[in-house]
Design a protein that fits this description.
single chain; Serine Protease, Human Cytomegalovirus Protease, Chain A; phage-related protein like fold; nine-stranded mixed sheet; six-stranded mixed sheet; 22 strands
Length: 600
């Protein structure tokens, strides 16, 4: 050809997948035919000493062939000797103005050819080196042909062994040892995972350089600036930045040793401080909130709380006294008169009364003013008030239904003599009944226990039966609602007949069987027990009550009130929700508690 060169080889080959997932198609770099581009070391441009010479490009049917010529600089002479000695056999290219369809590169412009330790395109290698020993004598030697090789081995084969045989033996040994090349490891990733790797590297460069990426489009993608160089601008044909194939190989090789991709990048940067990147975290994209604005709040199901707070009877006074006259005594019966007999007096009417005084219940919190100013995407003060309100109402509703589970000696307990819990109330106000599961099993199945009806049906029937019997003594306003655990509702809904068909198809069927107006599930009831005066342990199954028979009293100003105050000394915004109330059942025998005897 008449071309004077120091070596030649394939800069890139067609239809071979690179380690970054791209596949270069035929004539993708056709416009580069005959161009001369810089020959550099490892795609480094921070110093002119990294320019080793130039390379002539020749477009062929198989790909782009290149003829390299080293300059007379110290670095060029050193690189020439390394190529002649076979220490470096891999080529890599830098190209921009890429046009792709999926992972196929259809067009681009090669800006440089680089000598690298490991190539990205498995067909890019040096296959011919011309060694000039004198002015008039040229020697020619074959350095490498065939499959690509990574010169990463600690030992060398004898000098007389052909290079191709060395590579074949090394590849065979790697296969026998179960080792995989970085390219093989990378190719095990799916397309989505590969895109994440490309994105992280590209985003790292954008963040480090302050680029916005706004000028990039899907049809004109450029290989970005080498993130592992210093921050000097590239002074080639354009000022675009890139990441080379060789640098990607280095990161993936580190990741292959064990660990994460992020750790491999951190290790790379940690070993190359001359590149000017001290804080690797700045290279990774900021996390994106799944939910914009205030964070999603993790909490218990509080849908039942509203039914309690809205259902109770509210009075404009806090000191409550209930008085009842018990007219059920035998002594109060009317008597027949016989002429001539003396009439006798009947017995006395028994008066029953109790008084309930109010207690202050509060929820207090504080937020640093600095935090309030720094949180700009939502109103953190109102957000905190919302959580405080939910907490306060939940604890008041629990105090009304089952009581405050804190110890009686705890100064912060909502005291049961001020807000009287329905479950723990006196028998005069709440009727307590045990549910006899074993008795119902015997009644339904006889001696063949478990042979006819399943456990769920037996459980449901036992509850329904005991509730209906308890209603015979119930004296409340009627229209009862049921409050129980979600599990109890599910057990009853899963009751089946002998043919496997469900007894209750939905909640409406279950409400009709229980004769209640509504069913509210309260997960806070789970596992709650009480100890009776005769040391029996009872587990709560469900409460049945019309909350109009429960009165919450509060004087003017005692309703739930919000306070906010700024503490100058501690630079805090302090918040308080407070109420002063009393609570008690105001009708006798107006609630039913079904329980299980779990005494051990």
């Amino acid at each position: 050809m008449g071309i004077k060169y120091d070596f030649s080889g394939w800069a890139t080959r067609n239809d071979l997948k690179c380690s970054d997932g791209r596949t270069i198609r035929k004539d993708a770099f056709k416009d580069c035919d005959g161009m001369t581009v810089p020959l550099v070391w490892n795609h480094q441009h921070g110093n002119s000493s990294n320019v080793l010479g130039h390379a002539l490009l020749e477009n062929r049917d198989e790909g782009v062939y290149t003829y390299g010529c080293f300059n007379d600089t110290e670095e060029g002479i050193r690189a020439k000797k390394q190529v002649e000695h076979g220490d470096i056999t891999a080529l890599s290219i830098y190209a921009n103005q890429l046009k792709q369809r999926g992972g196929d590169v259809l067009h681009g412009a090669i800006r440089e050819v680089s000598l690298v330790l490991a190539g990205a395109n498995p067909g890019a290698f040096i296959d011919d080196v011309v060694m000039s020993h004198s002015d008039d004598a040229d020697g020619e030697a074959i350095i490498y042909t065939g499959e690509p090789v990574e010169l990463m081995h600690a030992e060398q084969e004898p000098a007389e062994k052909k290079e191709t045989e060395k590579v074949a033996d090394e590849n065979k040994k790697a296969a026998e040892d179960g080792d995989k090349t970085v390219g093989e490891i990378f190719n095990t990733l799916n397309e989505e995972q590969k895109k994440v790797v490309y994105y992280l590297i590209g985003q790292a460069v954008e963040d480090a350089k302050g680029g916005s990426g706004d000028e990039k489009n899907e049809e004109d993608e450029e290989v970005k600036h080498n993130a592992f160089e210093n921050n000097d601008e590239y002074t080639g044909s354009d000022d675009t930045l890139y990441i080379s194939h060789a640098d990607q190989e280095t990161i993936l090789a580190n990741a292959k040793k064990g660990g994460t991709f992020k750790g491999a990048v951190e290790e790379f940067f940690g070993d190359t401080l001359q590149h000017g990147i001290d804080d690797i975290e700045t290279l990774f994209p900021d996390p994106t909130d799944v939910y914009k604005g205030e964070p999603e709040t993790f909490k218990r199901d509080l849908s039942w709380v509203g039914s309690v707070m809205n259902g109770v009877h509210k009075a404009p006074y806090a000191r409550v006294r209930t008085r009842f006259a018990d007219a059920r005594a035998k002594e109060l019966r009317a008597k027949g008169y016989i002429k001539g007999d003396r009439k006798t007096l009947s017995g006395n009417i028994k008066l029953l009364q109790r008084t309930t005084d109010p207690q202050t219940i509060y929820r207090k919190d504080a937020i640093e003013r600095d935090d309030i100013l720094d949180i700009t995407d939502f109103d953190v003060v109102n957000y905190q008030y919302g959580i405080m309100r939910e907490n306060l109402e939940e604890d008041i509703a629990l105090a009304i239904m089952i009581g405050d589970d804190r110890d009686d000696t705890d100064r912060e307990q909502i005291k049961p003599e001020h807000v009287r819990p329905i479950w723990l109330d006196d028998e005069m106000y709440t009727l307590h009944y045990d549910v006899d599961i074993d008795g119902m099993k015997t009644a339904l199945n006889g001696s063949e226990t478990g042979q006819h009806f399943g456990e769920n049906y037996i459980y449901a029937e036992a509850i329904i039966q005991q509730l209906l019997y308890a209603r015979e003594k119930y004296k409340g306003s009627g229209n009862l609602a049921m409050y129980c655990t979600p599990h109890l509702v599910n057990v009853m809904l899963l009751a089946r007949d002998l043919n496997g068909r469900r007894i209750y198809n939905n909640l409406d069927d279950l409400k009709a069987a229980l004769n209640v107006s509504a069913i509210y599930t309260v997960e806070q009831f789970e596992g709650k027990t009480r100890t009776t005066s005769d040391n029996k342990k009872k587990q709560l199954l469900g409460l049945f009550v019309n909350l109009k028979d429960y009165q919450v009293g509060s004087v003017r100003g005692g309703q739930i009130t919000k306070f906010q105050q700024f503490d100058i000394d501690f630079n805090q915004e302090k918040m308080l929700l407070e109420t002063r109330i009393s609570g008690a059942m105001i009708k006798p025998w107006a609630a039913i508690a079904l329980e299980l005897d779990v005494t051990e």
